[in-house]
Predict the 3D structure of the following.
Amino acid sequence: MNQAKHSETMERPLEHIDDPTLPARVAKLSLAELDTLPFGVIRLDPEGKVTFYSKTEAEQSGYRDRRAIGRDFFTQMAPCLGTPERLRRIDQARREGTLDIAFEQIGDFDDAERELHVRVLSAPGGGLWLFIERP
């Protein structure tokens, strides 16, 4: 394969949570690859418990070495993200089919003034993916 043809078939790296290819591409990534993305990645089961918490998210958020796996994300870890309005939006989008919503949030574990860009996507088995970018 010549170099030009090879370059056309290579996917560009995932750099931002608003990438339109994110839903399809994240399903193909291993947990180790998810850990290397430049933004935070969290996987929740259908009950909202954390099943994956990326190293990037732990470092960027300031959550670091605290236990995340098995905890209820919206009540025990980040109740500021689990407001009744947001949880209603998530539940409604789940009922309507594929979930893909985005919102902004101010405040992080280490920095109450930090701006967050959050994208929530459906995950296989009824769970959720949360992607958190800090500009």
The first helix runs from residue 3 to 9. The two ends are 38 Å apart (CA to CA). The chain has one domain: 30-133.
